[in-house]
Fold these 2 entries.
Entry 1:
Amino acid sequence: MNQTATLAARDIASPEADVQSPARRSAGTGAKRKRLFGIFGTVLAVATVGYGSYWWLVKSHYVSTDNAYVEATSAEITPQVAAAVTEVRVKDTQSVHAGDVLVVLDNADATLAVSQAQAQLGQVTRRVEGYFASDGALAAQIAARTADVASARSDLERARADYQRRRALTEGGAVSTEDLTTAENRLRQAAAGLNSAQAQLRAAEGTRRATEVLIAGVSVEDNPEVVAARTQLEQATLNLNRTIIRAPIDGVVAKRSVQVGQRVQVGASLMSIVPVGQAYVNANFKEGQLERVKLGQLVELKSDLYGSSVRFHGRVAGLAGGTGSAFSVIPAQNATGNWIKVVQRLPVRIEIDPKELSAHPLSVGLSMTATVDTAR
């Protein structure tokens, strides 16, 4: 009987136990949820503080962009004389050094021009040497004419004295009129001789002055005529040397368009030499990133060609004088009523460490990622 009562009491109590069990479970779940939210909130706060500290202490000291590309100051190869191409000794992608022969032009006309200029120089030199020789001869001729004038003047004085003496004797009857006439004729002849000698002296002096103008103050080598002829020879020799076109710098051949047999004109583009060893990077930073970017700051660069395994290092070499849009063919004119501000980018030139470029060459146009350390 006691057992039956116990069973009945248990049956009566079990519904109450079933009613209380979900409430207890709900309370336990809520407490657990609160603990999880507390933990999540704590972790989030710690992460926020940690990232903020990291950004403030480290990340805020760097500005980065992937809008960066490799560039180089290429050398355009153009002929300086017009001629036919006889040899092309290089091809695209070939590495060359300064002084290497790239193209050989036909030099027949240039060789003839050199020979003609040499002959012209010889003729002019001999003509100028003749000026100097003539000056010496004219000096001797002037000396002789001066002596002739002096002699003629003496003859004139003697003839005049003889005429005057005979004239005085004629008045006294001691000399005949015929003798006086003879003395007068000698006087006229002496005067004519003096005039002739003086005229010859003046002619010689004038000729010498004309010669002296051509040679005054200079030697044969420094004479303007000789210098002009020598300059023509040097120009002809220069044109002959220009028939061999050489590389002006070290680099890689690109855009080769010249072919054997082609007649090229002065200034025509034959090829380009890209100095890959002197490549640099133009990084286009947003204007808001440039507040603390200064010349000389260190830059870390990554190329898509080599991936993250290779890091290049360089320095900020300069900031462009204008944005890319300012120098475009049709620059933006933001003067309309529906103007929308567009963030501009300014090219920043970055010089790369030459040793790293030598170890890992870069080609013009490759993409780069540039990160500038603005804290230094």
Entry 2:
Amino acid sequence: MSRRKIDYLTSPVLRPYGWLIHGFGLASGSCDRPDAYPADGLKPVLPKQIHSDEVHVLDRVPLEKPVGDALVSAVAGLLLVVRTADCLPVLLAEPGARVVAAVHCGWRGTAAGILKKTLLVMKSEFATRPQDVRAALGPSIAGSCYEVGEDVRQAFAAAGFPDGVFRAAAGRPGKYLLDLVRANAGLLVEAGVMPDNISLAGICSHCRPEFYSYRRDKGEKRRMCNFIGLRPA
């Protein structure tokens, strides 16, 4: 019996580049099967995600899973994969240098500025230009659905985020609604990415049943596969 490949969405900001493969997965397929991805000859690399700001640069398939939440590579044939079920997946590509990155942005990684750190690593390792980077922000829990506590608000305030990434949760004293997409889009612009080069999926994983949602499904352990890579020669 043949196994179905992953169902996925693509981003208009990344589609023009034929040397690139990318996608935001739906709730189907398995991240661990190399034959699940939509191109032959690609070797998926999945990190052990820990909600951090750790970034790994890859020039080959590692012997063990990298521990962290962002992967960067300029090597054709490697497929960088991050898994999400409400957290925000961000796929980055710099066409001139042909460098790509996959980033898992939960609230902790966002507060720690993982996107800014990833862009700095891309620049230092591959001389990429932030103004030339294309950034695709995938499906995630929307600001209207993501309730957090005072500790999270204070962590973002300490990191210098504007008050606008939060709003008070109606009738819930001490609770706030966090807009992860707005917070991370702001980080990209601060780091030098041009607003016209940023694409937002505009899809809430909590509201749409075709996506896994950790919050909606009370601790859902399955994850969507979000991926980017350079096609093999």
